[in-house]
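Think of the structure tokens as a kind of shorthand, similar to the way a musician reads notation: each symbol stands for something richer, in this case the local conformation of the backbone. In the example below we present two proteins back to back. Begin with the first one, reading the sequence and then the tokens, and try to describe in your own words what changes along the chain.
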Amino acid sequence: MKISEIFKNKTPISFEIFPPKGDLSVETLRDTLSSLKKLNPDFISVTYSAGGTGNSAKTVELASVVKNEFGIESMAHLTCINSDRQTVRKVVSDIKNAGIENVLALRGDIIEGNEPTDFKTAADLIEEIKDEPLCIGAACYPEGHVACQSVEKDIEYLKVKQDKGASFFVSQLFFENRSFYDFIEKTKRAGITVPITAGIMPMLSKSQVSRMIFMCGASLPSEIIRILNKYENDEISLKKAGIEYAASQARDLISNGVDGVHLYTMNKPEIASGIMERIK
């Protein structure tokens, strides 16, 4: 099923997982998927490896396992900045042959020393694949992309992605719901009409949060700072507090009528389970 159809019928709660790294096989994630299936996600997205440098075959293979073995709708991430048109077309063919109907079209991280060839932006990728029988999602950034000069300019580019064929957007993580609500209001004024699902990642450590701030530009509300200071030397308590905070974010988002909630699970079913229990 195309994810755009899921949005028409409900407020989906979805998960993100990443392929096994190094020499690990997809087999290593079957236990993870068994646990996630019990939580009844509406779809699961599967990333490329960090930096977009990994083998896309693992992404496609895992997305196929999610859909064809576990019966959960899947979405394969597809990056373009380090690929030429022929390579992208090959991956798209693999995706379709695996029975996957949904892709998340992303620019990806530029590899140092590599110059972009056929694609410079996610919009270029969307333009390339818009006539394929695929439902195309794209990323959005409630506080603006770190490389963009303003949220407003970022939203202008979001409209370009919508106009080229994006059927929905998945947001980057954020820790303050008000920033997401403000973002949604701005997107409506800019003519964004497709669903936008809110990306939530629970904090597990101070180093993880610091890394996310650097990579994503997410701001920290005072409550998060207090939690990090209180539990920075107590991993178990910090993990519990992180799950509680993420669940409170999700409950508030759902009660305020967001289009969907997307949980960054970090391949840890206990995190997804903890949040889902608290949402219910």
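Once you have a description of the first chain, move to the second and do the same.
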Amino acid sequence: MKYSKILFVTVLLTTYLVFGNLYADSIKDELEKSPRHAEWVKIKSADNHEVNSFIVYPEVKEPATAIIVIHEIFGLTDWIRLVADRLAAEGFVAICPDLLSGMGTDGGGTESFDSGDEVRRAIRGLSAERVKTDLDAVFKYLQDLPSTNDKIGVSGFCWGGSKSFQYAVASDEIAAAFVFYGSAPSVENVAKISVPVYGFYGENDNRINATIDSTKNAADASNVKYEPVIYKDVGHAFLRRGMDENANEAQKKATKDAWTRWVKILKEL
């Protein structure tokens, strides 16, 4: 019995690694084959800090709405870049700043860390001021592009979702904030928000969802537009999981519904 359990765990881990690597390869392949123009740019913030960012342009005739995509606690991964590419396919200029720029080995960013644990520790060590200063610089970069219009949204996933919510507190210039399963700011800070906030949450994610009601009550009391939607039968990080070819039906449906909603709101800004 003992050896059967060991064998089962070994097979499970092997399967997870194999399918995980296949998914990672499919992401890289889709990025490589994308017909859209994408490039890496270095953006200097107010204190001369350089933010390495990946930007993708849509194939459109007119200046486009832009969206900042803030990465998860895993840093700037290929999956985040894929989200940007798919947003560009929908007609938006999408940019992903690496908020670990300059924090890694030899002044590198996410890619320069030796492990995921190191990335997570480094992200936890970022100050709110550092994040805001860098996002301000990215926002201004988008503002100054001749290929964008005057509508710039901010979005994020998990850790990035929390930062997008916090940026809505700090900035009255963004067109909207899109929070994917990120924690909310304090009730006191919710009252300071002057832009619409749209939330995307998995039903099985009480760690995040436990504060939705209090956040909604605080928003309503201050006439802040906060529209949370909870997607059934999925948990945290459902959009990333739902984009995987091996996702279950609930994850695929939640991802499709959330993506459709996101694009619709962006087009109506």
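Compare your description with these statements about the second chain. The mean pLDDT is 93.
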